[in-house]
Design a protein that fits this description.
One of its GO terms (molecular function) is hydrolase activity. This is 3-keto-alpha-glucoside-1,2-lyase/3-keto-2-hydroxy-glucal hydratase domain-containing protein. By secondary structure, this protein is mainly β. The strands form three sheets. It has a nine-stranded antiparallel sheet with strand order 4-3-2-1-9-8-7-6-5, with no helix packed on it. Strands 10, 12, 13, 15, 18, 19, 20 and 22 form an eight-stranded antiparallel sheet that branches. It has a five-stranded antiparallel sheet with strand order 11-14-21-16-17, with no helix packed on it. It folds into two domains: 100 residues, Quinohemoprotein amine dehydrogenase alpha subunit, domain 2 (Lipocalin), CATH 2.40.128; 168 residues, Sandwich (Jelly Rolls), CATH 2.60.120.
Length: 315
């Protein structure tokens, strides 16, 4: 190939790749991104979450979080028509039946669509773009707040009846599976210190702003996973499993500013300044731009707390 032909060939390749990348950039605007969803499901409005992104130049993939369970990979998001799309995912904790099938469209900057559930029922949902959450460099902290007073449930409420939570000898206890416990006060950015204990085989968690679950589970000795203790459920995997044995008192020190979280389990940093992509299963709502309460999971297994201290970011 002559120098002139090689130059023309190189120029044509550059123009072609530039056109492809330009096309991808244009295609990225409408559907790609993270979306906070609300779905009408079994007579209630439940929070959900969707991420759509490119894999290579032409394929769209994603992740989906339902009202329960962990983040689920979406192998392919098919697009057609005027900003319309569809995808399907296998069931996770849902009843036996078909795959869950989603149809959606972007209308006036918002998503709307339907989910065909495993039992064939059709459920409608809407979605807005997940907000950017501001991060504060060199934060200054306010005074610590003893959210649990060591005496009673003042400052807390449950999400259902009956309430199995009790305070005995200064210990906040859920002796059996039942209601989740929620703070009356809401918080935006904070440091959290908790001291907790669980019996063998138990499972619980703490929801930050009522939306992002930091897992608590009897996982000592297991390889670290995002669904095990120290992880942000289904999203962020701890660097190590720093759990103590069941029956021992353990500590979490968690800092959340914007979407960036640091988790220290029993004095060991296991997640450091990582971004939480979206809500986790079991969240109270999907309104990520708003302050939210703490929620202690009580609908799985027994759990005890002897300290629950929140230090808000100074305004």
């Amino acid at each position: 190939m002559t120098f002139r032909k090689k130059t023309l060939y190189t120029l044509c390749c550059a123009l072609f790749l530039g056109a492809v990348f330009s096309m991808n950039a244009q295609n990225k605007i409408p559907l790609e991104g993270r979306w906070d969803l609300e779905m009408e499901f079994e007579g209630k409005t439940v929070p959900s979450w969707l991420e759509i992104k490119h894999s290579g130049h032409a394929t769209l993939i994603g992740r989906f979080v339902f009202a329960f369970g962990s983040a689920r990979p979406v192998a392919e998001v098919k697009t057609f028509g005027d900003n319309q799309f569809s995808f399907s995912i296998p069931r996770q904790w849902e009843p036996e039946g078909t795959d869950m099938v989603f149809h959606g469209a972007l209308v006036d900057g918002k998503l709307k669509g339907t989910m065909i559930y495993t039992d064939g029922s059709v459920n409608h949902w809407t979605g807005v773009r997940a907000p950017k959450l501001a991060y504060t460099e060199n934060p200054k902290w306010d005074k610590p707040i003893e959210v649990f007073n060591g005496k009673d449930l003042t400052g807390w409420h449950t999400d259902r009846d009956p309430n199995q939570w009790v305070v005995k000898d200064g210990i906040l206890t859920s002796p059996e599976s039942g209601a989740n416990l929620i703070t009356d006060e809401k918080f935006q950015d904070f440091k959290l210190h908790v001291e907790f204990r669980y019996p063998e085989g138990s499972n619980s968690g703490i929801y930050l702003r009522g939306r992002y679950e930091v897992q608590i589970e009897d996982d000592k000795g297991l390889e670290p996973l995002d669904i095990y203790i120290g992880g942000v459920y289904g999203f962020l995997e701890p660097t190590e499993n720093a759990a103590k044995s069941a029956g021992e008192w353990q500590t979490y020190d968690i800092t959340l500013i914007g979407r960036r979280v640091t988790v220290v389990l029993n004095g060991r940093p296991v997640i450091t300044d990582a971004t939480i992509p979206g809500i986790t299963g079991g969240a109270l709502d999907s309104k990520e731009g708003e302050p939210g309460p703490f929620m202690i999971q009580g609908d799985h297994g027994p759990i005890e707390y002897r300290s629950f201290v929140v230090t808000p970011l100074k305004k």
